[in-house]
Model the fold of this input.
Amino acid sequence: MLDVNKLITGDRRTAAKMITVIENEAPEKQALMAQIYPHTGRAYVLGITGSPGAGKSSLVDEIIKKIRGEDLKAGIIAVDPTSPISGGALLGDRIRMQEHTLDRGVFIRSMGARGCLGGLARATKDAVKVLDAFGCDMVLVETVGVGQSELDIMHYADTTVVVLTPGSGDHIQIIKAGIMEIADLFVINKADLGGARRIANDVEAMLDMSPRSNGWRPPVLTTSTIEVSGLDELWAGIKAHRDYIRSSGVLEEATRERLKLEVVEAVEQELFNLILERTKSDRQMGSLLDEVVRRKVDPYTAARRILDMFMQN
Done:
C-alpha cells in the first residue's frame, strides 16, 4: 500500500503512483481512496471544455501562469481521446505545457479517456482527490474535445469554462445544446482570427433568453494566446465566479449534490458488479436469462425478478 503521509507532504512520485493505481483499477484502490478522502476538500476545481482545436490547452497553459503568479500550487488533469483501435492515447497536452514541467508548484497528469463518453476519463474524479490531498490550491481539468452532449465536467468542477472559436462551423449548433447550460464563463478563443465579436453577441443573446436560476450570468470573454489578449480578464472572471459561489452558498450546495451523486454512482457500480457475478454463478438467474433469450420473459420483468432475488437474500 502506498504511503498517504508522503502524498500529503507533497511527494510527487507518490502522487503519480496513486493516480496510476486509480487508472488501472488496482485491488488496493478502494482502501487507498478511503485514506485519502479525509485530506480532501480544499482544492478549487476548474473545468476547461470545448470543441476540438479550440485552444483549450493553450488557455490552460496561460491560466497556470496566473495561478503561479499568485504563488498558488496547481494540478492539471488533461484528458485525451483514446484510440478505439489500438487503445492508446497521444497524451499531447504535456507537450503544450512543457515549460511548466520543471516547476515544483505544478503537477501535470495526462490520461486517456479509455472509452468514456462524457469528455472525461473514469479515473478523473479520484485523480482530482489525489491532487487535492497532494496540496494543490487549484486543480484544472481539461476535457477531451467535446461536442454537444459531453457534460460530465459539470459534476466535477466548481467553475466550468466553455471555449468556443471563430470559424468553427455552425456555432449556433454548439451554443444551443446542453453544453450551453453548464458554462460559468464563455471564452471566445483565437480572437485574432476575426469574427469573435459576432459569436460573443450570439452567446449574449442566448443568455438573455435563458437566465440562470442561481443569479450568476456567465461573462462572455474574448481571448487570444497568440496576441496575449484577454487573459487577465479571463483570470479575473474565474476568481469572480469563485468568490460569488462561495459567498452565496452555491458552492456548498453544489458540493453536497456532487458528493451525493458520487455515492449513488458508487452504489450503482457495486450493484452492477455483484449482479453480473451472480448471473454467472447463480442457476436460478441463469434460467431466468435463458427465458429472456427464448422470448418467454421480457428484460424488464427479468430485471425486477433479479432485484427481488437480491432483496430476499
The beta strands are 44-50, 74-80, 106-112, 138-142, 159-164, 185-188, 220-222. The CA atoms of residues 54 and 168 lie 8 Å apart. Residues 40-248 form a domain with the Rossmann fold fold (CATH 3.40.50.300).
